[in-house]
Specification:
This protein has 3 helices and 10 strands. By secondary structure, it is an alpha+beta fold. Helix 1 crosses helix 3.
Length: about 170
């Protein structure tokens, strides 16, 4: 059986700025009002024969949205972003989070931003495609703590009405 959670109607939303280095139009810092749709398939189980409790799906997904909301999303493992005082191959992302500010260059343009205004993502891009994978992986890990009956989780991260990217994680 499949369950569906509509991001607009369930308030699974976040607004963030991001940049896709090297892209003709998305290579500039810009923002979106995102919403996240969730689809989960699995066997019905437990006292109430749920696939998964909607409350859990919505609260876990909302927690991820809240973490990203009103922040600059920085894909740490993008080859076109040059960080000052941070080596992507050696240093942990957690080192970036501990700093007061982060300095980096993209295509020769320099930025210094307070770290509290950023989310450092372990991704090569902050595209809808990569964000949907990030959400699916994160949600799958959290749901696995309580559920062993799930077959897959599909997440669609929408960059507004009419355009989004879906990632399906088999479990």
């Amino acid at each position: 059986m499949k369950i569906l959670v509509n991001g607009v109607q369930s308030n699974l939303r976040f607004s963030s700025a991001h940049v896709i280095p090297g892209h003709e139009s998305c290579g500039f810092i810009h923002g979106h009002s995102y919403f996240v749709d969730v689809e989960i398939e699995g066997e019905r189980t437990g006292k109430f024969e749920f696939v998964v409790d909607f409350k859990d799906v919505k609260s876990y997904t909302k927690a991820i949205c809240d973490e990203l909301d009103h922040r600059l999303l920085i894909p740490v493992y993008n080859d076109l972003i040059e960080f000052k005082d941070f080596d992507k191959k050696k240093d942990s992302i957690f080192n970036l989070k501990k700093q007061n500010s982060v300095s980096f260059k993209i295509d020769g343009k320099g930025y210094t931003i307070p770290c509290e205004d950023c989310v450092f993502l372990p991704l090569p891009y902050s595209s809808a495609e990569e964000l949907s994978k990030f959400f699916a992986e994160s949600l799958a890990k959290k749901l696995a703590e309580s559920y062993d009956n799930l077959e897959y989780i599909a997440i669609c991260v929408n960059e507004g009405i009419g355009q989004g990217a879906e990632y399906r994680k088999e479990l």
